[in-house]
């Protein structure tokens, strides 16, 4: 199976990069968060508020099962926890966007933070970042510290 699975911490640019890849390689794009929002018919922040994190994680497990059944290669834009809790490496080639925590903070404005319940406190988000980094690393096929022309070439190789 040759899905390209994009993982990394909240705010590391997974969605924007996934769109670029979908366009560049003419592959269909799916977002695990978007599927959950459609399933529950609520934005992620409301899902956390109304039903709590555990419920959200159960939705992620359901999405994993659905995605595992896709036959055609897709670009899979994963929520930050999806890359941690699911065996994403079973879905295809895994690309980890490995930004530094400070870079992530710089990229995120107030509005972007509000969408992410687990980013409501910087210190808690940083703790989570530290806990997760090695797990993302272990599951990844390639690690990208930045996105440039070379990254697209590296990814092209993964599709061969
Ligand atoms: C989460 C990341 C979010 C979203 C939810 C939980 C996480 O996605 O799935 O708020 O646990 O890291 P992004 O990584 O796209 O922000």
Summarize the structure.
With 160 residues, the protein is α/β, with parallel strands linked by helices. The chain is 55% helix and 12% strand. The chain contains nine helices and five strands.
Describe the SSE topology:
Blueprint: E1 3-7, H1 14-24, E2 29-31, H2 32-40, H3 44-51, H4 53-68, E3 75-77, H5 82-85, E4 92-97, H6 101-107, H7 110-114, H8 122-139, E5 142-144, H9 149-158
Bound molecules: shikimate-3-phosphate.
Largest sheet: 5 strands, parallel
Helical residue percent band: 55-70%
Strand content: 5-15%
Helix-strand string: EHEHHHEHEHHHEH
How many E-type strands? 5
Which cofactors or ions or other ligands sit in this model? shikimate-3-phosphate
User: What is the helix tally?
Assistant: 9
Low-confidence stretches: none
Based on secondary structure, the structural category is alpha/beta
The end-to-end span amounts to 12 Å
Query: How large is the radius of gyration?
Result: 15 Å
* Apparent shape: globular
Within the largest sheet, what's the order of strands? 2-3-1-4-5
Query: Overall mean pLDDT score?
Result: 95
Assembly level: single chain
Structural features, described:
The structure is a single chain. By secondary structure, the chain is an alpha/beta fold. Helix content is 55%, strand content 12%. The protein has nine helices and five strands; from the N terminus they run E-H-E-H-H-H-E-H-E-H-H-H-E-H. The protein has helices at residues 14-24, 32-40, 44-51, 53-68, 82-85, 101-107, 110-114, 122-139, 149-158; strands at residues 3-7, 29-31, 75-77, 92-97, 142-144. It has a five-stranded parallel β-sheet, sandwiched between helices. The protein is globular. The model has no long low-confidence stretch (mean pLDDT 95).
């Amino acid at each position: 199976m040759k899905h390209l699975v994009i993982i990394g911490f909240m705010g590391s640019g997974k969605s924007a990069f996934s769109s670029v890849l979908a366009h560049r390689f003419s592959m269909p794009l799916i977002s695990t968060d978007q599927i959950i929002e459609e399933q529950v018919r609520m934005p992620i922040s409301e899902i956390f508020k109304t039903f709590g994190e555990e419920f959200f994680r159960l939705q992620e497990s359901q999405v994993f099962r659905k995605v595992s059944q896709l036959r055609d290669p897709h670009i899979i834009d994963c929520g930050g926890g999806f890359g941690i809790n699911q065996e994403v490496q079973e879905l295809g080639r895994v690309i980890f966007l490995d930004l530094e925590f400070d870079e992530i903070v710089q990229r995120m404005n107030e509005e972007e933070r509000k969408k992410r319940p687990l980013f409501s406190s910087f210190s808690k988000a940083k703790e989570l970042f530290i806990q997760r980094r090695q797990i993302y690393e272990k599951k990844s096929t390639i690690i990208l510290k930045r996105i440039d022309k070379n990254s697209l070439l590296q990814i092209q190789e993964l599709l061969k």
